[in-house]
Structures are given as C-alpha cells and as structure tokens.
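Subject: for your reference before the review

Hello V.,

The reviewers asked for a structural picture of the protein, and I figured it would be easier to keep everything in one thread rather than splitting it across files. Below is the amino acid sequence we used in the manuscript, unchanged from the supplementary table.
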Amino acid sequence: MNNNQYLVPKIEQPFNVDLELPGSKSIALRQLAMSALTKGTTILEGVPVCDDTAAMLECLERLGLSISQSNTTVTLAGPMNLVDDVEINSRMSGASTRLLIALAALRSGKTSIDGHESLRARTNLPLVNALQKLGCQIDSSDGHLPLAVHRPIQQTGSVSIDGSLSSQYITALLLISCGVAGDQAFFEKITIEGEVVSKPYIDITINEMDKRGVSARWEGTRSISIDTTRSYEASHITIEGDATAASYAASLACIHRGQVKFTNLGSNTRQGDYRFFEVLERLGAEVTRDQTSTLIRGPSRLTTFKSIDMQDMPDVALTLIALAPLLNEELSISGLSSLHHKECDRLECPADEMLEMGIGVTTTSDSIRIQPASVEELRDHLLTTYHDHRMAMAFSVLGSKTGLITVDDKNVVDKTYPDYWKDYQKFL
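And here is what came back from the structure prediction:
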C-alpha cells in the first residue's frame, strides 16, 4: 500500500457523534460569484476550505477582487475588473468554471479559462451557445476548456438555454442577470429548453440571490423572471453545512445503528440534497429536524424499497448506489442521466467497481439496478476513484461495513471535504 492509499476502517459498533459539516460548497460558490458583481465589501462565514473554493478565490483575485481569508471567513471587496486581459484556471471545479465563463461574458477584456485535464473533458456548450446568441465572442472546441471570452454580451432582455444536461448553466446565467454593481442589467427572463435537470440547485441560486437583494421567480416550469432593477448588495452571510457532505455520515448512522447530529444543517435549508434524509427514513432511520440542526438515528433493522428516482438529488445518488448492496432486496435507482457528466461517469464507474467486488449490477443510460450482497462473499478491492472525491466518500459507506475497500487516493477528498477521513475516525 502506498502513502496515498487508504484502507477504509470497518466500523464495529454503534456511535453517537455531533458533527459540524463543512459549509455548503454550492452556496459558497454562488456567494463568491455574486461578490464579483457587488460594489463594496462582503463577508462570508462558513466558506468550506477545500480545493474547489480555493480555485474560485484564486480566479476572483485574478479578476481584480480584493480578498482576505481567515479559516472559514472570507472578506471580498468588489466589483471585479472589467477591462484587463486575464488568464484564470479553475483546476477541477466544474461549477466554478461555469460561473467564471458567465462572469467573463460581462468583461470587455479577454478572459482565458483553463482547468485540469478531467475538467477539459466536460462540456460547457449549452452555456457557450447561450452567450454567443447574446453577442459574446467565445473561442472554444465545442464548449470545452481551454476557452477564451473576447467580447461581452451585446444584447439584453431575455435569453434561452438548454437545461437538459446541467442546472449549472442556468445558475451561471441567473447570477449575472443583473450585471455589475448596477451599471447595466442583462436578462429579465431566462427560458429553459428541454428537460430541467437538478431543479433544486436552481432554487438554491434563486434563494441566495434574494439574500443579496435581487429577486428572481419561476414562471411556470420553463422560465424564470428576474427583477433587474436591483443590484447585489454587500452583505454579511453565514453559509450553512453541506447537505451532500451530510449524506455520508447519515448513511453510516443508518447502517450501523448509530446516531449523528449535524449541528449546522437544519430544516430551513433550500439544498435539494437535504431530501436524502427522507430516503434514509424510508430505510427505517429516525430523523429529527429543527431549523438549524438535524439528528439521525439508525434503525435496528433496515427496511427496503424496490425503486427510487434521484433526478433531483444527483450528487447524493452515488451515496445511495454505494449503500444499496447492504440492503436485503434489489434496488433500482433511476433519473441518473446527468451522472455521466460529473468528475467521472458516476453511473458506469461505480458499477464497474462493484462488479469487481462481486456485487451484481446492471445499468441503462439513466438507471442502475443493484443486487444485495453478502459481505462475507465480497472480495478485497482497491477502489479506483477516477479523481472523483465523491467516489471515495460514497464507497467509504460500503467499506465501513466490509473492511475490504482500499481507496486508491485518499487525498481526492480535498476537492470538497479535506477533513473527511478525520471526521470518519469519530465513528470508530
């Protein structure tokens, strides 16, 4: 075993743990992007200290924001510089990339954007197409990094975009709709073409915009209107715990008859992945919620269900996939087409890994069917994470029961949750 590999320790007994989650990455990235469009100083508390937010902060600094950071508190003075030519690198952060492309579309200076090779494989074409229709000049190979934005948006009023691949493109357009510090508004209406995937993430965006003084609302299921008479206000914002990160510890509680209290994530959240607690309740877990915290107790015996649609919770679908072999019945999970376009193919890659372990798995283009597995019959396995942080954290749930899974790169969790393995030790 090399130094980067990590044998996931088997959890042998129930536990009672209070856990403060890292701040929501989704909320943090949105708040950071809005700060680039805000005149004045914004203070954000609870910003997760991880690779994705570090990449975003580095890019915003290159765009001209004055930034200081102390642990999880970040102070930003905006707005961004609009005229200088800038080169930025979003590393492995797909969400940051989409937000930065949109920010670049407001600048008269050339913005060159690149990222890690794995990020270069992920397309940004729906966003690029939408911005080009508005007069942006963008050089790219079918929307892939590296790309360069040469000319800002020329048209205003409304914009349409394909929503069938990722909600991040819609979020990016929403966040720049009111322009830079009140100088010019751009989109009063966004029309979404095709299926709207991961709608709860769009709802997060609308909620975070409202915190900064800009109102947006759904009109039916295919369009969003924005009050562009307002601009973002400099604010002091506390970022709540990350609901996706909570899914791993909550699953551990569910399968080990443990108890976990999440001290900074409660029922007042707008994060769609918070509904994962409802999934665990269907497995027999007891969940107690108040506005600021959530307590989960695992059942003495897991109950089962035959199928579930996870389209609105794509980031926690992988957690459920890794938990499914521990159930007593076959589980079919659908609504997974968007998983093909993440850090790795989160549908086929976990299926391949489980097959190698001796778990029965079949997939379609948007679903996976997983057979129950006898822990005693599973094989030792070196888990390939494919540079995907969620592969490591999700499969730690299965590894906690078997003691047979070695993660090929323990440091991959640094992307969003650097303290994950430290927090995992609290359950032993």
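For the response letter, the relevant points are probably these. Residues 23 and 241 are 4 Å apart (CA to CA). Residues 243-256 form the longest helix (14 residues).

Happy to draft the paragraph if you're swamped.

O.
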